Queue: 2 jobs
Job 1
Amino acid sequence: MKRLLKFFFFVLSVGVLSALAVVLFLWIKWNTVDLPSKKEILNYRPPLVTEVYDRNGKLIGEFFVQRRIYVPIDKIPEKLKLAFLAAEDARFYKHKGIDITGIIRALIADIKARKFVQGGSTITQQVAKNMFLTPEKTISRKIKEMILAMKLERTLSKDKILELYLNMIYFGHGSYGVAAAAQTYFGKPLDKLTLAECALLAGIPKAPGRYSPYLNIEAAYKRRNWVLKRMYEEGFITKKEYSVALAEGIVLAKERIRRVDLVPYFNEFIRRKLIEKYGQDKVLKGGLKVYTTLDYKLQELAREELLKGLIDLEKRHGLIDKDQPYKPLVGRVKLVTEKSVVVDVDGRDYTIWDLPKNVYFKPKQRVKFWFDRDGRIRFWKPPEVNGALLSIDLNTMGVVAMVGGYDYAVSKFNRAWQARRQPGSSFKPVVYSAALENGFTPFTLVLDAPVVYQIPASVAKESGLPRYWVPQNYEGDFLGPIPLWRALALSRNTVSVRLVDRIGIDKVIEMARRLGITSPLRRDLSIALGSSEVTLWELLRAYTVFAKGGYLCEPIYITKVEDYDGKVLELNDKPLCINVMDAMISDSMLYMLRKVVETGTGRKALSLGRPAAGKTGTTNDYRDAWFFGFTPNLATGVYVGYDDHRSLGDRETGARAALPIWLGYMKRAVEGYPLRMFMPYTQFLAPSE
């Protein structure tokens, strides 16, 4: 009977254990059905940074979800690898993904300390979790992690797993992977790190919020020294190396690199164009290399000249102190009181009493200031007016400078590409081109005299024009019969309106469309004076037609795009050009636009000292000021205006507000180009005058 009972309990036990084993097997099978395949593991790549370069190979921008600079294992210093092994998984090269010895050791340490002081996860388990699993702390997720870790070990080499780990982990402050972390904390490449710096980095991932030296220097010291001790205990470093590293201080980078964004207006323009073509995931996670036409030196020059011109404008009207410099000094707020702010400038304190209205300060805030003639510190006042500059290399049609405003931090709106404003007289070359196609020549006599137009009631109501419209010249006078070229050079409004009335509004709009202007255009006579809003981009593109023999070429801004593996996804070495105008017409326009510079409203451009052509533009009440000009090598457009459309101030014309910015930029920009003369595309010859 006893034997029978024993046999019964034995069978029952085997049955129960078998049932439990089956249930456990099915549970594990059910919960691991979504684990990645071998192919998915081999093809896995963490989110990478897309890098943007200027035409000289300078890194000017980064796009990413996680700031990660991927580095192959053979490019990672040995001492850095050993530091992480000591801190996280010293038996990494001995176990098969799960370290039973490590789990037992961690469990004993936790029991002794009566709290969690060590983790039992291997580097392989951490890679498995970060690659494909969620951070939730459940038994199901832990089982998946262990199974996936063993699968990783069967699929990838140890070095590849360590490579993924070192490029994947988060170090705080937006940095992922050891290369980005080295830049963030020390401003160094990996091969320049000291042993102590390697140990500090190895100690951060456990708890970036606690061990970041930017946030808690004492905790970072202790954690670094613990890593060094572990390296010594494991025999990774000698006693001398250990002692020297312990004595080393922590010297952090002066500024944390969060994102390379040297040319924000252009970078945002490029980012949008890339996402339109490749999608957001590819751009923000794919590790693309984007080579552009931008010239960083010219971009910085353009930004400086734009800011200088805007400050000069507001100085002329008493809105900015006439002694304020163009470039401010920078300090940090140390103390804020009701009536003053104490600013720390290189370790010396200055008190500012003249505080701007409705501006609030807080300690450690960066502020811009300057010293007046009496040595008093004063806040640096940025201009309220804004503007844009766009520059295109006519040899390649590459965009070499795009400044959408004087400061991206103040306004992210790109006025070079997004803003539609009235171009005023800078639209007149479109009108004159249409006139040339309809029987006029540069030497046709046209009448500059008073004229009155009766506007139909319905049109007047829709367009906002009065019933009787009397166009006026800027100077308020009339010159009588004058050749067409002189009318453009002196920007005579009555002549432009008469031309539109003569050839018809449709002819002007049709010409504008051929020249690449896509913005909506008004169908009334005011189109002659640039009443329709356009962008700086499309109007500058139209001007390039006059320099290129009647060909409209689409500007290039990206020359090449490569994926992470170096495969070329896009190559743009030549612009797309179509013939939109007879060369005789474009040469005639070139002649007249040169006359604008030689004898007309653009005479200031003569000081460039090179052959130049262009046209000024000013709108009603001086709300907008423009200048478009080009040499045989370089075409540049400048726009100036308040975002709220208020007046720039009395007599702030294109020649006064925009042309000096163009000239300041072009004088230095053309130094990089050979001296060339304008070469007509036809045998166009002007008669002696």
Note: Residues 72-247 form a domain with the Penicillin binding protein transpeptidase fold fold (CATH 1.10.3810.10).
Job 2
Amino acid sequence: MSSRGVMGWLAALMIGVLPCSAANPLGAAIADIIDGKDYHAAQWGILVADAKTGETIWARHADKLIAPASVTKLYSSAAILAALGADYRFQTPLYRTGGLRSDGTLIGNLVIVASGDPTFGGRTLPNGRLAFQNQDHTYANAGLFTTPLTQTNPVAALDHFAKLVRRAGITAVQGDILIDASLFEPTHSTGSGPDLVTPMMVNDNVVDLIVSPGPHPGAPAIVRTRPETAYLQLDTDITTGEKVSSTLLTLRTLGGNRATVRGQIPLGSQPLVRIVPVEDPIFFARALFIESLRRHGVRVSASLMGPVRAQLPRSDDYGGLPLLGVYTSPPLSELLKVTLKVSHNLYASAFPCLIAAHAGKRTAEEGLRLQANLLEDLGVSVKTISFGGGAGGAAADFVTPHSVIQLLRGMASRPDWPIYRDALPVMGVDGTLSEVLPPHSPAQGKIHAKTGTLITWNQLNDRGLLRSKALAGTMTTASGRDVHFALFVNGVTLPVDVDSSREGKVLAQLAELIYHQTPAGELARP
């Protein structure tokens, strides 16, 4: 190559765009897809880089701000992992106040001090790991897929506490049931699904509705709740339709822990899940604990409908109170796995709050400022990006493809990189990437990456507007080269009756191209 040719190639590399030619089949194949007619008005941001050296393999608009959708969770998960450590476990204590009579009556209160544990026993398996389904129940109201529930007890931690109460000899509580949720200030999730982020969360702050068809057409459908609770007042009118009928369910929340469900479900169909988010997660947890105590033979005079009559102890009083026991969560590594595999908005939105609380702060905003310091320590140019939350749906969320590669390279330099990498969805295997590859693809199981989707409704044209579709992660290519990649597309007007899964398959196709066509050990030069 002439000196002039070398200078031209270097200039192209510096601005983040390598021209396509016969000598650069990867770039030509990528450009052939992203320059197609479906994306004339869209904005792409792409960077494929060598994982060891950071050298650019192929790029387009790698230093332009672009909406990341749930790829935001890569940043918030890295930050909490750096702040707390993979082995961190949430410790939630249970105290009592007052005296205990000889007949087992507590003349005082039971107090749970919330630790911020996002799952609080509701996903814990007998082996101590956290369960997940590839389609999480928090997305059930979108109605885009069947949502199987985990085979776990959503009130396991509360049942654990109820057993501790009985073990302490308490058979009746004349005082109140209290939950100290002062760890951090409640905030809102920056993603779809349940909205309220609180220091105490049980069953992701929702009640699951499981609707099954009756025995014959015209019969009432069978509706149950998970957890079973009197806290939710539910009015249902759902019939069983013919086998060939459509599923039609309308769920309405009416306030005051009331909801209605109307519609039909076809005969012989699989159970359908919907969720009812709770208005007051702390009061919800209190009600569930009262019900658990009663199931375990403890009489409770306080009403699960309220009001709360007693005052919480002062923070410096707990050292002098009898401790009945502690609920210990699985390690943080398990929480990261669930958060990233299923793209759990509520958990990721809690991460800035938990980072803040760990540092003695109280707000999500303070947590995000601490997150900036943690990301900077990982080598991320934080001044070039913007976040308004931890999940990916905030209006302020913007990153560059270059910053994603900085993040991945920073994490890959840490001892906990295998934990972080393995928490990502695996293409063709699990989580949000379980169904994006064609059968028998050689790339199946070889690509670890975080997905992202941010979609709104274009009322003007009565169709979807895909604000962001994203895929970012790491792989060892077919040529044996370790590669990090960031693929984003923003601003796609979807055709009528087409959803974002189309672009999900496009991004998976691009990842397959990177897997198959990245050359070994050198830049994909033009």
Note: Confidence is low (pLDDT under 50) at residues 1-22.
